[in-house]
Amino acid sequence: MQISNRTKHAKAEGAFEVLARAQQIERETGVKVVHMEIGEPDFPTPKGIVEACKKSLDDGLTHYTPAGGIPEFREAVARHLSKTRNITIDPENVLIAAGGKLLIYATCVTFLEPGDECIVPDPGYPPYQSAVSLAGGIPIPLPLTEENGYQVTAEELEKRITPKTKLIIINTPQNPTGGVLSKTELEKMAEVVKRSNAVVFSDEIYSDLIYSEEDKHFSIASVPGMLDRTVLMDGMSKTFSMTGWRLGYAAVPHQFYGSMKKIVNNTVSCCPAFTQMAGIEALEGNNPEVHMMWEHFKERRDIIYTLVNEIPGMSMIKPKGAFYAFVNVKPILDKYHLTSADLAEIFLQKAFVACLSGSIFGKQGDSYIRFSYATSKEDIQRGMAHIKKLIETEYPV
To answer: What is the rounded distance in angstroms from the CA atom of residue 20 to the CA atom of residue 307?
Structure first.
């Protein structure tokens, strides 16, 4: 007996593997590790959202729901997307799923036949490539570089589109770089897409986590002519600190909706009613904690940006969104003949700071380390102090 090649070659998400390794080190050594590996807000879910869930449980909303989501939540999502993206979303086009990953997978399975190509950002969120491969497709990396602020350019996109290109995945704000795609570039990309046979999957899970007025979120679905060929995905995990609730949603063009809903129906059946009722409260209730979290993330971004750039051999540009610092460590790697995976392990073993190798996110990340600043200011300061001391004493550049 043997497992399929698709499963054999699929990769687990590195952040969870590093988390397990860090926890093992904590158990074995008794030393507290600074956790900067997981992209998870360190705040509790806002109280009003939790109370809405409790009420739903008390009201007996504990049974199966429609595969596409309960009508009340689909309507709330449609209102939210219509307002924030300046487009008109029909609730009938809203698909609810147990987290954004399932929507990534459902999209890949819906559009890719074996041998079809899907363009993915590099560096990019690792499950993109895994989902493409599991669906039998071929991931085609689209390089993002520090030199141009991690912008995707229409020219680079067009170079990679072939007759086999069936899907294009974009992400803004970005994991792992913190880059934000500009309205101007997205409009240019849209014109390229319109000349192809490809559908766009737009991952906008960090849409509310942008830290300057000049970099407001813009969706490619808002470009005239793109709504009918874009699967627009967002969710509750990052903005509302609801990672464990597993609640994502997408606006899906009507001609594809039934096919994608089949994937949800045949994997998780449906999402619980009580989490969806909590989702309504998140999108439409009064939750002042959400802005408070945004303010903390912005302050932490500024802190880590300053501290990283004070460490010899390490540098970064200031992230515009999300909550990640993508740090260039090439001088250290070159001098000591290390890989980014080697250095991430050194930081864990010797500085007790858990972070991710940039190579996890694609070839373009080979010279980088990703730190999540979705942790306390004190932990950021302590972690960077440990790393600075280690670099200055054992790996001077």
So the answer is: 27
Do you know the residue count of the chain? Answer: 397
Same domain? For 272 and 300 the reply is: no
- pLDDT at position 10 over 80: no
Task: From 267, 284, 301, give the residue that closes a domain.
Answer: 284
13 plus 116 within the same structural domain: no
Of 263, 284, 305, the residue that ends a domain is 284
Shared domain check, 313 and 301: yes
Burial of 63 from C-beta contacts in 10 A (0-12 / 13-18 / 19+): exposed
Q: In the predicted model, what is the mean pLDDT of residues 9-18? A: 81
Query: What is the C-alpha separation between 265 and 267, in angstroms, rounded?
Result: 6
Check: CB of residue 357 under 8 Å from CB of residue 343.
yes
- Quote the strand ranges of the chain, DSSP E: 34-35, 94-97, 117-122, 138-143, 165-171, 199-203, 230-235, 248-251, 324-328, 353-354, 356-357, 368-372
Q: Which of 343, 341, 325, 333 lies closest to 380 in space, CA to CA?
A: 325
Residue-wise pLDDT tens digits, 22-49: 999 999 999 999 999 999 999 999 999 9
